[in-house]
Give the backbone structure.
Amino acid sequence: MPTYVMFGKYTPDSIEDISAQRTQDATKVIGDAGGKIVSGYALLGETDLVVIAEFPNNEQAMKASVGLARLLEISFTTSPAVSMDEFDQLVG
């Protein structure tokens, strides 16, 4: 499945609701969109969260991104990604 990088930014309200349950709910949203989380990280700086996920296509990635924003009140920017090996083959 294609890989996507999802960058999340907390709002002041969304910070109050951080919990393990909310992470489980977010995982379900991704799964319901046909996706699978590969890894996820909390960050310092401009971006608060990054999730590496796989989805069948752009439409399902978009569905998950909007679903997460609705559920979590966190703004997500979702971008398709290719491995460096794939990139080298595409442009090399």
Q: What stands out?
A: The chain is about 45% helix and 30% strand. The chain has one domain: 3-82.
